[in-house]
Design goal:
The complex is a heterodimer. By secondary structure, chain A is α+β, with helices and mostly antiparallel strands. In chain A, 34% of the residues lie in helices and 37% in strands. In chain B, helix 2 packs parallel to helix 3.
Chain lengths: 154, 146
């Protein structure tokens, strides 16, 4: 995967998270993950189409998701209800869209799909032969792993 | 029971969502995210605007606009939505009512979509994340243009 694709996601994640959750965000070291990846409990998924194909997965624990959604709504959510899920998918949408906007400025054309959210324990994500690059973000609410897999169209 | 008299207002200010004739401006929110709909709703109702309807995709937004017409002052329109995207819905609303006041609200700041929406007839464009001040400024600015 081309490294130019990644930086916009890192920057955009940092900007959006700072704006909607507040400061003290630490970026962890990037690392590559093989194709089958366990999911932490809540995963928001945004698809990419256009010059390339791929997807961005925002992976976090249920506890982190509830805490992030509570902060974004300015009220304590007891569980990840409909509003909580909509909040996490919107966070994924904002980060991906801002990254896509930056990529657009660099001359890459992407469209994105409306986001989906998946919740459950012990899930795995498999993408056929595509490596995913992980951008870990540490917040006071917990960890969010932004998992980007993009490949050129054959 | 506290009445308004218990809270003397230092700055006598008319809420921005109420017209000079004392009527609330009527707004339709078109967005597929319950979270964003709630956010926009809270910002606008706190200033006296009335959210007359919400729609969760472009098709529903278009149908709702036609039902409410002419009793509607403003539409906020998301771009990326299922069934019909916001740019298409904007186009169809303008076809139906060339004076429609539509503000695009999207996380995408892509220049071509911004330009395209404004060319079709959107009055303004707000990039998410939403900031209360920015939303009110643009909405009020749009309502004041004729």
């Amino acid at each position: 995967m081309r490294v130019e694709y990644i930086n916009p996601f890192v920057e955009s994640a940092y900007n959006v998270l700072s704006e909607v959750i507040g400061p003290d965000i630490q970026r962890g070291d990037l690392y590559l993950k093989s194709t089958t990846q366990p999911v932490m409990g809540v995963a928001a998924l945004v698809g990419l189409a256009g010059d390339v194909e791929g997807r961005v997965l925002f992976d976090m624990s249920m506890k982190t998701a509830i805490s992030v959604a509570s902060k974004m709504n300015g009220e304590e959510l007891a569980s990840l209800d409909e509003l909580g899920k909509a909040t996490i998918t919107e966070l994924a949408n904002m980060i991906t869209a801002q990254a896509v906007t930056k990529l657009h400025e660099l001359g890459f054309q992407f469209d994105l799909t409306p986001p989906a959210i998946i919740t459950g324990e012990n899930m795995e994500v498999s993408d056929a032969d595509v490596e995913a690059l992980i951008v870990p973000m540490e917040l006071s609410s917990g960890k969010i792993e932004i998992n980007v897999a993009i490949r050129e169209r054959a | 029971m506290k009445t308004k008299m218990d809270f003397p207002n230092i700055n006598e200010r008319q809420p921005e969502g109420i017209s000079d004739e004392g009527k609330s401006f009527r707004v339709l929110i078109v967005d597929d995210s319950m979270f964003v709909t709630k956010q926009i709703g809270q910002i606008l109702t706190s200033e006296g605007f009335e959210i007359v309807a919400t729609a969760s995709d472009g098709q529903e937004g278009l149908e709702t606009y036609k039902e409410l017409y002419p009793d509607i002052d403003l539409v906020t329109m998301d771009i990326t939505m299922p069934r019909m995207d916001g740019v298409t819905a904007l186009e169809k609303i303008i076809e139906f009512d060339k004076n429609a006041k539509v503000i695009m609200i999207s996380a995408l700041g892509k220049q071509d979509l911004v330009k395209k929406s404004l060319l079709i007839g959107a009055k303004n464009y707000i990039v998410k994340p939403l900031d209360r001040k920015k939303v009110l400024e643009r909405v009020i600015g749009t309502l004041k243009t004729d």
